[in-house]
């Protein structure tokens, strides 16, 4: 028995030193996928070419997170502010999203990935909403990685919708103002049932949150890398995970 435990520990140490396993893997990774436009611009291509390349990065990163055994991956794909981009870019992004949803199901099923979405979906075109619902439904019983796309998502909008829903429940006598606590409030957020992100990655060198998961990221570790999203790959993800592993998360207390 002692020998088996020792062998197990030695094999784990070996895996860790070879980069195959991590001592502290985030349960939930959130990513602000930024820099598609600049990636394209650097190559003299239209911005949409960067978004197209960005979709292949999504595919690779989803597969890698699933392979590593990450529990939750939340990708910021389209913000509430992105609606203010030129019409042709918004339309191209919507049609890329439609294509992605139309082709991705077999991969999600193969890897047992559960698909979810957060954001103000009412604003999305009807056909996209239908595809989203179908993908959510067909993957709801999957037991692997939970992949959440943030679409037409803004944290301030999400918080306001939650405040209104809570106010509504108070006004119809479901509970009192004094009963509103963090747990009850969180249940009215789009991310209900999902643990808070442990690690946020933002690509493209920008160091800001851009209205993403403001409530949920109270204690998230932030990681910024300079590469544009279309260039992000398994090696970049590994660098982020290595960095995460070196962090000391104290949550306001003191190190043990
Ligand atoms: C991120 O890339 C994708 C979306 C916001 C939809 P950008 O389109 O923001 O690319 P940059 O930041 O302009 O380079
Ligand atoms: C954040 O990127 C939104 C997404 C990645 C979907 P933006 O490019 O829209 O953010 P800003 O404008 O640089 O803050
Ligand atoms: Mg950007």
Total domain units: 1
Helix share bin: 40-55%
How many individual β-strands? 6
Which secondary-structure class do the elements indicate? alpha/beta
Q: Would you mind describing this structure in some detail?
A:
With 256 residues, this protein is α/β, with parallel strands linked by helices. The chain has helices at 2-17, 36-42, 47-68, 87-110, 126-139, 155-171, 182-186, 234-245; strands spanning 28-32, 72-79, 114-118, 146-153, 199-202, 221-224. It has a six-stranded parallel β-sheet, with helices on both faces. Helix 5 links the parallel strand 3 (114-118) and strand 4 (146-153). Helix 2 (36-42) crosses helix 3 and helix 4 (87-110) packs parallel to helix 5 (126-139). The two termini are 30 Å apart. The structure holds 3-methylbut-3-enyl trihydrogen diphosphate (2 copies) and magnesium ion.
């Amino acid at each position: 028995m002692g020998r088996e435990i020792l062998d197990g520990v030695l094999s784990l140490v070996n895996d860790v030193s070879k980069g195959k396993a991590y001592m502290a893997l985030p349960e939930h990774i959130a990513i602000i996928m930024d820099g598609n436009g600049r990636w394209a611009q650097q190559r003299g291509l239209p911005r949409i070419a960067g978004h197209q390349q960005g979709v292949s990065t999504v595919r690779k990163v989803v597969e890698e997170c699933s392979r590593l055994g990450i529990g939750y991956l939340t990708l910021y794909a389209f913000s509430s502010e992105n609606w203010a981009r030129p019409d042709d870019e918004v339309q191209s992004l919507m049609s890329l999203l439609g294509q992605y949803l139309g082709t991705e199901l077999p991969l999600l099923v193969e890897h047992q990935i559960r698909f979810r979405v957060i954001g103000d979906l009412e604003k999305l075109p009807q056909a996209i909403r239908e595809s989203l619902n179908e993908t959510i439904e067909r993957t709801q019983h999957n037991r692997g990685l939970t992949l959440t796309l943030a679409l037409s998502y803004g944290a301030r909008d999400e918080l306001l919708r939650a405040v209104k829903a809570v106010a509504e429940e108070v006004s119809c006598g479901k509970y009192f103002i004094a009963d509103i606590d963090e747990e009850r409030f969180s249940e009215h957020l789009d991310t209900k049932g999902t643990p808070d992100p442990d690690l946020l990655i933002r690509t493209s060198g920008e160091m800001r949150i851009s209205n993403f998961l403001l409530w949920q990221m109270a204690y998230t570790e932030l990681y910024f890398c300079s590469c544009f999203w279309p260039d992000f790959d398994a090696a970049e993800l590994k660098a982020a995970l290595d960095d995460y592993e070196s962090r000391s998360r104290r949550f306001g207390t003191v190190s043990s």
